[in-house]
């Protein structure tokens, strides 16, 4: 399938430490890697490995650091013809501290770069895509982009962080992908309670997911029924960076493949859980594709 994702790419500087340090500590890292990150592009890289033709709609700074991003996306066959280059801005950068003891990832993110706008989006012929995915960021511009999709069901919106008026977008996408952080912010301790409270904020027939780390994930199918899948716990958790983006990719893959929610919710927990047992976002281990279904 042809899939477009609108969102960000970052440079992630990941330091592996034995345990998360205390404030004002000075610790020696056990390892370091510098990789491309960013929710939308992470999701695309996984979708590409699952066999889809992927395109990125996003903004790149005209800096040397963007080379990492361009090279990585090119290596994953991501089409970049809709990317906007900004002369005045910095490559978004995340300092990530990955704890060996817990596998947790703590992210400090810096961004000084314009967001992909509705004007940028208006130049894309969305009829050429089977699915369009949006990272829930600049709400005003996103509202206009979703309006252009004209209430079509074949688009998804990721709601990771609380943002002013983002709730106004809930009725405009066919698939809403919530984070546990957002559900907690709304005062809920699990996905089922959160979904039940959304009420008229969401159109009937809207697909929804809510990923909850080691506790697994919840989903709502088109009939409104709530589903749950436990997490798939790897032998050892080594890297949880991007787990949510892998999960979202697997959900989109399941929806465009016409699978049932029960099937793709479990498959997404499986793929994301397996990923937590490996370093990075490659679905291949020892050169062999991982059988994740
Ligand atoms: P994010 O990376 O956005 O914080 P989550 O932590 O909610 O996202 O993780 C998304 C999905 O990845 C979860 O629903 C779960 O299936 C899987 N996952 C995340 N952390 C772990 C873990 N430590 N062990 C197993 N699976 C995990
Ligand atoms: C992981 C991630 C990182 C990036 C950060 C941006 O989900 O996309 O790759 O640095 O989140 O918020």
Tell me the layout of helices and strands.
Blueprint: E1 2-6, E2 10-17, E3 31-37, H1 39-49, E4 53-57, E5 59-61, H2 66-75, E6 84-86, E7 93-99, E8 105-110, H3 118-122, E9 131-135, H4 139-148, E10 155-159, E11 175-179, H5 180-185, H6 191-198, E12 207-211, E13 217-220, E14 226-229, H7 243-256, H8 261-276, E15 284-285, E16 288-289
Parallel strand pairs: 1-4, 1-9, 2-7, 5-6, 9-10, 10-11, 11-12
Antiparallel strand pairs: 2-3, 7-8, 12-13, 13-14, 15-16
Helix pairs in contact: 1-7, 7-8
Adenosine-5'-diphosphate binds next to helix 7 and helix 8.
Q: Tell how many strands the DSSP assignment holds.
A: 16
- The CATH superfamily label reads Ribokinase
Strand proportion: 25-35%
The arrangement of helices and strands along the chain is EEEHEEHEEEHEHEEHHEEEHHEE
Mean pLDDT rating: 94
What is the percent of helical residues? 25-40%
The CATH class designation is Alpha Beta
Termini gap? 18 Å
Sheet with the most strands: spatial strand order: 4-1-9-10-11-12-13-14
Name the poorly predicted regions. Answer: 286-293
Question: Which structural category do the helix and sheet elements fall into?
Answer: alpha/beta
What count of structural domains? Answer: 1
| CATH third-level topology | UDP-N-acetylmuramoyl-L-alanine:D-glutamate ligase
Q: What ions, cofactors and ligands are bound?
A: adenosine-5'-diphosphate, beta-D-fructofuranose
Q: Rg to the nearest angstrom?
A: 18 Å
Number of helices: 8
């Amino acid at each position: 399938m042809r899939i477009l994702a609108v969102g960000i790419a970052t440079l992630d500087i990941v330091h592996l430490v034995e345990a998360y340090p205390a404030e004002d500590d000075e610790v020696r890292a056990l390892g370091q890697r510098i990789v491309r990150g960013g929710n939308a592009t992470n999701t695309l890289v996984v979708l590409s490995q699952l066999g889809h033709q992927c395109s990125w709609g996003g903004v790149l700074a005209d800096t040397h650091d963007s080379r990492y991003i361009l090279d990585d996306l090119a290596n994953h066959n991501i089409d970049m013809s809709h990317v906007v280059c900004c002369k005045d801005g910095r490559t978004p950068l995340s300092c990530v501290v990955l704890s060996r003891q817990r596998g947790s990832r703590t992210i400090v993110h810096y961004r000084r770069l314009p967001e992909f706008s509705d004007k940028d989006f208006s130049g894309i012929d969305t009829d050429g895509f089977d699915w369009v995915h949006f990272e829930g960021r600049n709400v005003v511009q996103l509202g206009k982009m979703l309006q252009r999709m004209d209430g079509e069901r074949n688009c998804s919106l990721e709601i990771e962080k609380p943002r002013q008026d983002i709730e106004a977008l809930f009725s405009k996408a066919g698939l809403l992908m919530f984070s546990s952080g957002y559900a907690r912010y709304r005062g809920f301790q699990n996905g089922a309670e959160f979904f039940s409270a959304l009420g008229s904020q969401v159109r009937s027939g809207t697909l929804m997911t809510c990923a909850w780390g080691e506790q697994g994930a919840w989903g709502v199918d088109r009939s409104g029924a709530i589903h749950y899948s436990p997490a798939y716990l790897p032998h050892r958790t080594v890297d949880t960076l991007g787990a949510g983006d892998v999960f979202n990719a697997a959900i989109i893959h399941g929806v465009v493949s016409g699978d049932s929610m029960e099937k793709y919710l479990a498959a997404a927990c499986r793929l994301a859980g397996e990923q937590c047992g490996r370093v990075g976002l490659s679905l291949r281990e020892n050169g062999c594709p991982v059988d994740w279904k």
